[in-house]
Amino acid sequence: MNIEQMLAVLNPEIVGRLKTAVEIGKWPNGVALTKEQREICMQAVYAWEIQHLPETERSGYIDRGTKEEGEQCDDDHHKNEDFQPIKFI
Predict the structure, then answer these.
(1) Low-confidence ranges of the chain (pLDDT < 70)
(2) Which site among 19, 21, 47, 61 is 20 to 30 Å from 37 CA-CA?
(3) What residue spans carry the region label Disordered (predicted)?
(4) Does the residue 35 lie in any domain?
């Protein structure tokens, strides 16, 4: 089975089950996924999501927000704290 045939068979329910299997490392019947099975499941989920979901709904999406040119992050609450290295005893 090639990737196109596999993607044609997948639907949201199957993809959800594959995602759950990857997340918990087990099939619905409790059998552990092998490393190879986990990798194949992840690839199938990503490939399906690219074809069927907008970018913001895909696995692994990170909303980085937007900044205007020259705008800087305002997260400077730690700027005035004195740096103290960890001391190992």
Answers:
(1) 72-81, 83, 89
(2) 61
(3) 59-89
(4) yes
